Amino acid sequence: MQKHTSLLFLAYVSGVLAALEFARSSVVASYSPNMSCIWSEKQALLRFKRGLFDEFNYLSSWVGDDCCSWRGIHCSTTSHVIELDLRNCALRGDQIINSSLLDLKYLNYLDLSFNNFNEIEIPDFFGSFKELTYLNLSSSNFQGLVPHHLGNLSTLRYLDLSNNYDHDYDYDYAYYNSLRIDSMRWVSGLSFLEHLDLSTVDLSEASTDPFSTKKIFPNSISVLKLAGCQLDNSIFSSVSCKNLTSLVSLDLAYNHFNHSFPLWVVNNSGLVQLNIGSNNFRGPIPKSLESLTALSKLDISDNNFQGYIPQSLVKLSKLAHLYIDSNQFIGSLSESYCHLSNLEILSVSENQLSGNIPKCIGELSNLSELRLHDNYWDGFVSEHHLMNLTRLKWLTISSKSNLVLNISSEWEPPFQLERIAMMSLKVGPCIPLWLQRQREFTGLELRNTSISIIPTDWLVSLVSHAYFVDLSDNDINGEQLLFISTHSNHLHTLSLSNNYLSGGFPLFICNLTSLMILVLSNNNLSGELPKCLGNLSELSELDVMDNNFSGDIPVSLGSLGNLTYLNLHNNKFQGKLPLSFHSLANLVVLDAGKNHLSDILPQWTREQLPFLKYLILRSNSFHGKIPTQLCHRSSIQVLNLAENQITGSIPPCFGNFSSMITGGSTELNKGLENDIGEMIRYNVKGSDLQYTSNLKFLFSINLSNNNISGEIPEELMELHGLTNLNLTGNRLTGRIPDKIGELRKLDSLDLSRNELNGPIPQSLSELNSLSSLNVSFNDLSGRIPTGRQLQTFNDLSIYAGNDQLCGQAILKPCAGDTESRNPQNDSEVETDLCSDDERLWFYAGAGPGILVGFLIFCGSLHFFESWRYSFFHYVEHVFDKIAVTSALWRRKFKN
Which residues of the chain have pLDDT under 50? Predict the structure, then answer.
């Protein structure tokens, strides 16, 4: 049996490519250097070249008479150009591709992949190459509608219009390909097609085409890749995929399927690779999956599959890659999976698996990746679980239950890991020797592992060659890092958050020239931030929240042009925000809250900080008026200026915050989709909450506890996506806007401690999402509205300090309220009348119903002797119990 069963797939799928390459090699080998290429074909190539920008001179060889010797050109024995291979030449095309290529009448191979055609459309004439068998336009930045003319390529065997992606990285496909297809009819005509890759091409329009319910793909298809195509249930069925008997590889990942496992798949018994990950498939895995005996790769990760991990998978003896992570599987991991001796990758992480991790996993000697994290494992992990894994490169383990790491510190592992992740396990206080002996780490994550001591030489070695180091949520204390001297041009992520580090900023960090993410939050670090941070030109996320840093914020931070996330929250910084911050062109999050800054609010122009979405300057000493320039930040999603000394009024132009109008996050997240950064602390409903992955759902304005005056602008009522509005503790006057009920997504509203007057608008009762309300200590008057969500607020204090308010909510009757109170308006009259009518109809229906029920009950007692006996026995028992209880009470009173 082969050790690497994936080779079977590669051999099978690449047959046609090997044949093409053999034919090409034969042609090239027989080509005589004394023969010149066809003059007309040479001119066609030169005209094509003139439409390209060759920045790196990859086409510098395109000179002279013999075009057959030019780079990327291959000719036949008759000197005709048959192959144009310009893959990954960094070419740029800013205009329409020259149709002179049609003069290459014998062209059978065209590869323009991994270039940049600057969002031009694929030319229609590409469908006119009569001899073409291979066409690859992947990852070349074409856009628009894929021309149906490609359906004329009757000899085509290989077509790739995809954008490149890798299973190990969760790309957001919507932003990586601008191509779309409105109908798949033309594909069905490519009767010789064997390899079709449309990954990331938008097929959502094709899903609505009635033709999609018919047979779409030619029977010759062996490789079909449609990952990230925005497909739903409509385009795939047992009809549309009928007779795909040659299918060897199928990739439907990152789409919108939301039904049970697609049973038509199991009819393709020759399938070697199957990827349906990152959809919303649900239910159990069918037993019939065991019929796919040739399967070497199965990926059903990131779905909603449920139940136990099926034993049928054990019968897939050729499995090399098995991804079942990020589902809802329960139960234990059966020891029978240890019989899958060809397994190279086993990923069962992020499920609800429990019980012990089988020791026999250590017998899977071909394993290179073992991912077990985020389950409910019990028991322990010892060296026996890893004993024979000589090829292991990637190991992840964590548990939400009581898993114990019990590996001898003296154990000599038979492998050298490249990446390890252990979370919520007791590993420390010291780094075990067996871990220190791992010298090939590119990524290390030891979070919440009780580590307190880090060997300096080990850390220096780790930092010098690793790409990713996360030691957060441990007990690392003191000034251990201050005396480290090292540098690295590899490390891009360093997280030491939630430890007990003290002393000054570790200066060795300034020597990590490739660093992109630095997280030192929640430690006891003090002193000033060093100016040398400005030398980290690749830095995109900097988080020093919850420390004791002081002094001025370094001006040099303004030179970090790639910075998207800057969190300085809860330190002792003083002075002003550096003027250099206006150069942070990619900044999305700026949190300088809870410091000692004293300045007027920044007056950035429209062109500066164009991507800023989260601006948090709360709990400082900012003063003066809110500048209207702030309104130029139309993408603002969170604005928190609370607890400062701001005066003046609320600018009406706040209504320009378009992100708050739609309540939808725009394509400005720019690198904030990782597990380390993207965290802010925000005060909602009177409590400091930490927002991480749900940050994109927060739309908030907090101007509380300042000295702001004037009225609440009507323009704020246009912010229909707003979830939190806090204006408490100011000097606002006038009425609460009548249109406040249009803020339908509002979850929290605090207008307390102002000088607002007039009635509470009736529209407030229309806020179905409202869970927190406070209008206390104003000069409000009139009846408090009732209905819907307002009925759930039982805390009288939210209306306190408004002596002229009345109504049921505060148990204070309004003027004219009597036992037979006249309704305030016609709507209340109608409501009361409706209530009387409803009451009348209720009694009219309930009376006969009770009578019929009573007659049925009596009839049952009459006809069923056993029922009658049981009922009267029960009644007699109840009366006896009442009699005994009464006698006991009488005796107690007599005594």
Answer: 1-34, 165-175, 238-239, 666-677, 691-692, 819-836, 869, 880, 883-885, 887-895
Q: How would DSSP label each residue in 52-107?
A: SEETT-TTTT--SS-GGGSTTEEE-TTS-EEEEE-TT--EE--SPPPGGGGG-TT-
CA 573/CA 557 separation, integer angstroms: 14
CA angle centred on 208, ends 207 and 209, rounded to 5°: 95
**Beta strands of 112-267 (E only): which ranges?**
134-136, 143-145, 158-160, 178-180, 195-197, 223-225, 249-251
Task: Tell me if 812 sits within 8 A of 805, measured CB to CB.
Answer: yes
Angstrom distance (rounded) from CA 27 to CA 30 = 5
Question: Please, are residues 737 and 716 in contact by the beta-carbon 8 Å criterion?
Answer: yes
CA angle 192, 197, 198 (to 5 degrees): 115
pLDDT tens per residue, range 718-728: 999 999 999 99
Phi/psi region, residue 870 (left: phi>0; alpha: psi -120 to 50; beta: rest), is alpha
Strands (E), 157-241: 158-160, 178-180, 195-197, 223-225
> CA 376, CA 39: separation in Å to the nearest integer?
71
Q: How far is CA 790 from CA 156, 770, 776, 777, in A?
A: 66, 8, 15, 18
If DSSP codes are grouped into helix, strand and coil, which group holds residue 470? strand
d(CA 129, CA 146): 16
Cβ-based neighbours of 860, under 8 Å, separated by 6 or more? 867
Whether the Cβ atoms of residue 472 and residue 447 lie closer than 8 Å to each other: yes
The count of other CB atoms within 10 Å of the CB of residue 35 is 12
Which has the closest alpha carbon to 184: 221, 210, 158?
210
